[in-house]
Amino acid sequence: MLKTVAAVLVSAVLTACVISIEPTVPPSESVFEPGLLGTWVEAGQKDTAVVTRDGEGGYLIDYTDQDGTGRFTGWLGRLGDHLLLEVRPVLAETGASDAYEALLLPGHLLFVVTLADPEMRLAPLDIDAVRETLRRDDLRTPHLSYSENSIEGREQVILTGTSAELRTWLRQVLDRTEVLGETGVWRRVAPG
Fold first, then answer.
1. pTM higher than 0.70 for the full model?
2. Beta bridge partners of 68
3. Phi/psi zone of residue 10: left (φ > 0), alpha (ψ -120 to 50 degrees), beta?
């Protein structure tokens, strides 16, 4: 199970990541886009994602890469002109003790998404650009930054603000700075 949680944080070919503790897409502001449903393959890669509907407005995402498969929940939401996809791991029963499972935090990973059937583009937040942005007095938000001792030794920025603080900060940085990382291009190979 810990490997599955780690896969969330390093998915989409991230070697460093920016996650949040709180959601940036609250359920009350989520939107459902049927064009996200289906089986997707990352261009030039073997990674796949099977996206199905989860409840009223969310998604279940089975993401498979060379290390295995992880299950995620996801939500779409608008923030200004940006369509955001937020994913977090589904913490399934691991067979581990309750104390162990209580320490697993479902971090939220955020992408700016562009859908143009049969293609989807996902751009995560770039850790270096986010760190630089967080150094500016006018663009700060509560956060923690780890260079060592994070999962598998990867760098992390963990945004610790409330949902409202995160949305205010994202609205500013998505419109004022280049904080997006390398865009992954995915192609739908089967409808949902």
1. yes
2. 65
3. alpha
Task: Indicate the SS3 state at residue 144.
Answer: strand
Spans of all domains in the chain: 2-30+73-182
User: What residues have CB less than 8 Å from 164, skipping those under 6 apart?
Assistant: none
CA separation for the pair 106, 181 (Å, rounded): 22
Residues 43-57: tens digit of each pLDDT: 999 999 999 999 878
d(CA 31, CA 56): 10
Long-range contact pairs involving 42-47 (C-beta distance under 8 Å, separation at least 24): 42/184, 42/185, 42/186, 43/184, 43/185, 43/186, 43/187, 45/13
Tokens 């900060």 found at: 169
pLDDT at 103: 78
Paired strand residues for 52: 60
Question: Which residue, among 133, 22, 7, has the nearest Cα to 68 in the 3D structure?
Answer: 7
